[in-house]
Design a protein that fits this description.
With 54 residues, this protein is mostly beta strands. The protein has one helix spanning 36-39, and strands at 10-14, 20-24, 43-44. A three-stranded antiparallel beta sheet has the order 1-2-3, with no helix packed on it. A hairpin with a 5-residue loop joins β1 and β2. The chain is globular and about 40 Å long. The protein starts with 9 loop residues before the first strand and ends in a 10-residue tail after the last strand. The mean pLDDT is 78.
């Protein structure tokens, strides 16, 4: 069986406005300088919020 390479390493990044995103390292050109092009493949930390109820 062929060896599978997993490219699922994730990092937290912030845009200039201070919003946080979770991104795969392989989707970023430079994790220290994230732009809108990079962020389209990332997950906004607020977009996956789950309502846990009160």
């Amino acid at each position: 069986m062929a060896e599978q390479k997993h490219e699922q390493r994730f990092v937290w990044v912030k845009d200039k406005a201070g919003n946080e995103y979770v991104c795969r390292v392989m989707d970023l050109q430079d994790p220290k300088k994230v732009d809108e092009k990079d962020l389209k493949n990332c997950l906004d930390d607020a977009s996956r919020a789950v309502n846990v109820g009160d």
